[in-house]
Design brief:
alpha/beta, Rossmann fold, 2 domains, 39% helix, globular
């Protein structure tokens, strides 16, 4: 990485794409303010996701920074596997921590930002570099939502609480799950669209009078078994990313591969309706686009209730029970969603608020170092 006075590191949870999307939105906003910013990016989120999302200099380091939850599929988590993986991960390899701390100090890193990655905070503490935690929940709060596994999770919950509370600064983003003292609170954070609605619809060959419905499950590949039940909606084009080998048009279905080359915020912005799992990044992108949202909740995942309440209060949408995803009965609600209108949003993206805060921290660090 070239020498620069603006060195920063991001440690990003690889659970789904939501944390990488939020971190990418913040980094992109920082690039706008600090063109010489150089980023070291630590994650196991696939490299292509950051290549698609970022337009400035960064170095990607493939590193397991977080466990989160092991997923059987987009709607179901494997708690036994999660506990097993946490046992190994949260012991933290002291050699790894020391090596990362030395490397970041040699690079002149002035700030470590963690999107709920506990590893990043531990490295920051070892390196003596200030850290920023960005979250709308932390994993100790999520694990506390499984009472049947309380005994298995209890030690990990206490350990994680200590780590997260040791961050130098804390930023909470709406929809916030667990109110804490924070140095900054923001509205939803999302990556911004790059192409117009008209451009994307033209690329997808959607008729001018047709409705475009995006079905997305938050970055976890999964085959939607109810697609054949969408055939009668002949005035709609259904766009389904995630589980196809190549872009395929089959009647009113357009199936996209896991990495399609389309920028997801552009698809959300172009859609007349979004159907999907109510994860943070999908919610934030749909919120800022103002698109009607048919949202599935996960009955055992604690965040779902908070996100669902936010959508109900602030967004046009219809709640879809998680068990209707596989059997296709959610389609009964599609006519209502198609009748809903888009909402115009003029508020500031939370990414800009956070980037202003981080820029101020970096400038203060620069002055302190001379």
């Amino acid at each position: 990485m070239p020498s620069t006075s603006d060195q920063i590191a991001f440690f990003v949870s690889p659970h789904g794409f939501g944390h990488a999307a939020r971190a990418s939105a913040v980094i992109s906003a920082l690039y706008d303010r600090m063109p010489k910013l150089a980023v070291n990016l630590y994650s196991r989120t696939p490299p292509w996701f950051f290549r698609d999302s970022l337009r400035g200099p960064y170095v990607y380091h493939e590193l397991l920074t977080d466990i989160g939850l092991v997923q059987e599929n987009p709607m179901v988590e494997d708690l036994e596997a999660t506990v097993e993986k946490l046992e190994g991960f949260l012991r933290f390899d002291t050699g790894l921590i020391d090596r990362l701390a030395r490397q970041l100090n040699r690079d002149g890193c002035r700030l470590i930002v963690c999107d709920i990655s506990p590893l990043g905070i531990v490295v920051a503490n070892r390196a003596g570099i200030p850290s920023v935690l960005i979250e709308n929940f932390t994993w100790d709060w999520i694990y506390g939502g499984y009472p049947d596994y309380r005994e298995q999770f209890d030690g990990h919950i206490q350990h994680l609480q200590q780590i997260f509370s040791s961050a130098t600064w804390r930023i909470q983003t709406a929809p916030n799950c667990d109110e804490q003292d924070a140095d900054l609170k923001t509205g939803p954070i999302c990556r911004k669209p790059r192409a117009s609605k008209e451009e994307i619809r033209q690329q997808l060959k959607v008729p001018d009078a047709g409705k475009l419905v995006l079905i997305t499950m938050g970055g976890i590949p999964d085959a939607c078994s109810s697609l054949e039940q969408l055939r009668p909606f002949t005035d709609c084009r259904f766009l389904v990313p995630g589980d196809n080998e190549q872009l395929t048009v089959d009647g009113n279905l357009t199936l996209l591969p896991y990495h399609s080359g389309f920028y997801h915020p552009d698809l959300v912005n172009a859609a007349d309706v979004v159907i999907g799992k109510v994860g943070y990044s999908t919610l934030a992108e749909v919120y800022h686009a103002g698109t009607p949202f048919g949202y599935f909740t996960r009955p055992d995942f604690r965040e779902s209730d908070v996100l669902s309440a936010f959508v109900h209060k602030n967004m046009p949408g219809v709640h879809l029970s998680g068990d209707t995803y596989k059997d296709g009965s959610w389609i009964d609600h599609l006519p209502k969603l198609l009748e809903m209108s888009r909402v115009e949003r003029n508020e500031v993206n939370g990414a800009d608020v956070v980037s202003d805060f981080l820029q101020d921290l970096l400038l203060r660090r620069r002055e302190a170092w001379g």
